[in-house]
Specification:
single chain, about 50 residues, elongated, mainly beta
Length: about 50
Amino acid sequence: MINFYFDAKHIIGSKTLLKELSNDNGNPEFTHTLEMTVFGLMENKQAEKG
């Protein structure tokens, strides 16, 4: 698990590496997976007409 802050945004992520010695074709196979969630403040700016 990766958990850090960057520019006032909270970032949580994880990574996995799946290694198969032999896939359906008899070849070795690797699968990399990265999951990431970013939490931060979103600003709503509206123009006011006077």
